[in-house]
Amino acid sequence: MANGRSALQSRMSRNFKNWPALWERFMALFSGRTSMLEVQNRALLKSAGERTRRISELERELQQAGEALKWLRAEVERLKPEVERLKVEREFYHKRVQALEQDNHDLAAVATKYSLWGQKLERELARSIPMVRPRGASERGTSHTPTRHTADQGATHGRHTAETQDSRQCRCL
Fold first, then answer.
1. Coil, strand, or helix at residue 27?
2. Torsion of CA 82, 83, 84, 88, to 10 degrees
3. Which residues contact 136 (CB under 8 A, 6 or more apart)?
């Protein structure tokens, strides 16, 4: 056994004697790989830090969006009665407009009917009664045309009316 131990010790001592040389070879072999791994490690750490900051920003934005959503939901709930009131009001006014338009249409039809009837009566009246000329109109060659009087002509209008009652008919508008 002593021989077995000594052989092992001698082999180990030989290996350990060459240890620095083996280490240098080992380091030379893996030093390129080690430096590449260190660079990748720094890049990963930098990327992880940036992602951590971005995640924090997104979480803040999400929290703010959540608060804004809560406020908007509360605002929607607050405005629901107002919206319903406005819908009812709009419906009321829509029906009112439709009724007024129908009334307007009916009145226009009646007005047209009475206007045509009035024109017909005027034609019949013109045919049945000979044209009466105002006194003095044939002598002057003019006839009196109806005029519209304004408020500041009120004094003149009274005089005009008095004058025209004697000599000719005045149809003031």
1. helix
2. 100
3. 167, 168
Those residues whose C-beta lies under 8 Å from the C-beta of residue 169, and which sit 6 or more positions away, are 134, 144
Residue type, 5: R
More confident: 31 or 75: 75
State the sign of the Cα–Cα–Cα–Cα dihedral 136, 140, 142, 147. Answer: negative
What is the C-alpha radius of gyration for the chain, rounded to an integer number of angstroms? 56
Place of tokens 């209008």: 157
User: CA 118 from chain center: how many Å?
Assistant: 52
- Record the tokens describing residue 51, joined without a space: 């992602």
Question: What is each CA distance from 34 to 27, 31, 44, 87, 171, in whole angstroms?
Answer: 9, 5, 15, 74, 118
Please tell me which residue, 169 or 37, carries the higher pLDDT value: 37
CB 132 within 8 A of CB 107: no
Position 156 scores a pLDDT of 46
> CA–CA separation, 143 vs 131, rounded Å?
13
87 pLDDT exceeds 50?
yes
Q: Which tokens go with 140?
A: 């002057």
Block residue for tokens 């009334």: 103
